[in-house]
């Protein structure tokens, strides 16, 4: 189950949050090659963040997936998520950092209701 945790120091209202969640879900599913029904996105706004010595709008992300990650996919994901954050929250792409975790299946315990 790919999971993207996003943290930003920008306040996020529910309408913008919904747009970001939808756009990020589609992007992660498409680029990793997993169904949207397996993708989880967490968005945390108004988190105190200092980046490059300032508290200007910034964001940090962590993407965890069982497979599907690699240098070319990571680059596409990074730029796509940065573009979503820039469009929806006016966060400059130079103030966004994302860390990728490609984990082994045996290290995860996923329960999907009804499966």
TrEMBL record:
Keywords: Cytokine, Isomerase, Secreted. It comes from the Eukaryota. Gene3D superfamilies: Macrophage Migration Inhibitory Factor (3.30.429.10). GO terms for molecular function: cytokine activity; dopachrome isomerase activity; phenylpyruvate tautomerase activity. It catalyses: 3-phenylpyruvate = enol-phenylpyruvate; L-dopachrome = 5,6-dihydroxyindole-2-carboxylate. Its EC number is 5.3.2.1, 5.3.3.12. InterPro entries: Macrophage_inhib_fac, Tautomerase/MIF_sf. GO terms for cellular component: extracellular space. It is found in: Secreted. Belongs to the MIF family. This is L-dopachrome isomerase. It comes from Rhodamnia argentea.
